[in-house]
Amino acid sequence: MPAERAQTTVRPRAGALLRTLVVSALVALLSAAAGGGEATAVCVPAALLLARAAGTRGQAWGGAAAAAFAAVLPSALGEGSLPSLPLLAVVVAASVGVLESMRARLEREQAALRATALRDPLTGLANRRAFEERLAYEVARHKRKGRTFALIALDMDGFKSVNDRFGHKAGDEILRDVAASLRGVVREEDTVARLGGDEFCLLAPETDREGAERLAARAEEAVARAAAGLEGLGASAGVAVFPEDGRDGAAVHEAADVAALYAKRRRVRPRRAA
């Protein structure tokens, strides 16, 4: 693994260096052919091209400096008049600075959009897409290390009747309170997700069945605290552990859902006729 990482790091660096050398050589040839002087301005688009293609900020500024040096080199060797070096430096630096600023802003906006796409807009928890991505990652990681993780499926009991009675605004407020309460019973490395409606999931890495049962109990208590004062409102938790209950994410999730359904049926028993 270290050797593979080293190779993947060296290849981009070698590619960036080769690209810089080729572009710089072309800039030098163009500057020399045009007689230097104002022709050295050809380094500006070349500097922007190298900065835009660079993988790191250091490579961006290094490529820009190489392009500027290549443009001035023919004049310095007597192939034309030297331009105003301070002015050339300012123009190149300002151009690359603007490009870097725009790229940084674009990256921030893309990160914000991705974060929004992976969050449930009502509760701020991870949404189904984020949960499935994390589940796939944890399956691969725990399979590689031979470890176990736990998945707790939470299905709220009595939410529909409360929602119908008090309205959707009140229902949304309850869901937000439940989400906040669930955050308080998990570790930093755990994932709490709302998959839709009143369905929640907790993903706990490096957790065995005993730990999963304790977490499920804490999750049910957390929902009960959030629903305090609302009769009949609670949650049924179903526990599944990888790889005992499934060898992939879908199987583990299904096992947790089945366990939650079984817990709900035990909790809500039909009344016998008198």
Q: Number of domains in the coordinates?
A: 2
Order of helices and strands: HHHHHEHHEEHEH
Structural class of the secondary structure composition? alpha+beta
CATH class descriptor of the largest domain: Alpha Beta
- The CATH superfamily title of the largest domain: Reverse transcriptase/Diguanylate cyclase domain
Keywords:
single chain; 274 residues; alpha+beta; Alpha-Beta Plaits; four-stranded antiparallel sheet; 9 helices; disordered N terminus
Task: Write a structural description.
- With 274 residues, the protein is of the alpha+beta class.
- The chain folds into two domains: 2-117, no CATH class; 128-267, Alpha-Beta Plaits.
- 64% of the residues lie in helices and 11% in strands.
- The chain is built from nine helices and four strands, in the order αααααβααββαβα.
- Strands 2-3-1-4 form a four-stranded antiparallel beta sheet, with helices on both faces.
- Strand 2 and strand 3 (199-204) form a beta hairpin.
- The chain is elongated.
- The N and C termini lie far apart (69 Å).
How do you describe this structure in short?
By secondary structure, the chain is an alpha+beta fold.
